[in-house]
Amino acid sequence: MSFRLLAVGILALVIGTALCFAGYRAFRALIAIWGFFAGFLLTVGVYSGGHFLVSIGGLAIAFVVGLLLAALAYYLYVAAVVILSASVGFWVGTGLMMALGYGNHSTPALIAGLICAIAMAVLTLALDLTKFLIVISTSLGGASSIIAGILLLLGKIPLEALSFGIVGAIISSSQLWGLVWLVLTIAGIIVQLSNTRRYAHGHARAQFDKSERKQIKS
């Protein structure tokens, strides 16, 4: 196993566990990490056409985009919510199309991913259900990252499989891992809702605003 594969696998596993089971509680810190992770992978997928880190130029562009998304996600609440929900929606959309037999770089998969990304972002911002949608999104994204990390460490999938969809990589691996992903997602939702009952509805937003944080605590 190469060092690159080992590092990405462990990173995906650690980030995924934190996001899946504590995504709402530590939303600001974790969403910045997720923003970098999502921006890096999506840029690599678009730039290289699925060939992971095909060149130094592709790596540099992906790194810069990842840093930009991480900064936006850390400092702006709306940007954080959009980055989280859109990236999870995109990966779920492409993953579902892969389950139907389409390639993860095919036009139908890309269109489905974009539609799901926009729908998730709009729903999260438009409805007064921000807490629940953040919990669902972080559980989905976290579970995806956990399984992807495990599959990478076991050598079941190559790094290239992540370039256009973590969920697609899981589903294409086997239906059993897809089922494990679903179970982990449900477990993450249950754990997060149970552990955040005492948290105010605006807890995630308050992490971005000191004055609002004080009001919520009081």
What this model shows, in words?
With 218 residues, the protein is mainly α. It has one domain (3-211). It contains ten helices and no strands. The chain has helices spanning 3-22, 27-48, 56-75, 77-99, 107-126, 130-154, 166-173, 175-195, 203-206, 210-217. α6 (130-154) crosses α7. The radius of gyration is 17 Å and the shape is globular. Mean pLDDT is 78; it is low at 211-218.
List the helices and strands and how they pair.
Layout: H1 3-22, H2 27-48, H3 56-75, H4 77-99, H5 107-126, H6 130-154, H7 166-173, H8 175-195, H9 203-206, H10 210-217
Order of helices and strands: HHHHHHHHHH
Over all CA atoms, what is the radius of gyration? Answer: 17 Å
Strand content: under 5%
Q: Overall mean pLDDT score?
A: 78
Helical content stands at: over 70%
Q: Structurally, how many domains make up the residues? A: 1
Query: Total strand count, please?
Result: 0
How is the main sheet built? none
| Low-pLDDT segments, ≥5 res | 211-218
Principal-axes geometry comes out as globular
What's the number of helices? 10
Distance between the termini: 51 Å
Write out key terms for the chains shown.
218 residues; mainly alpha; disordered C terminus
Briefly summarize what is shown:
The chain is mainly alpha-helical and 218 residues long. The protein has one domain.
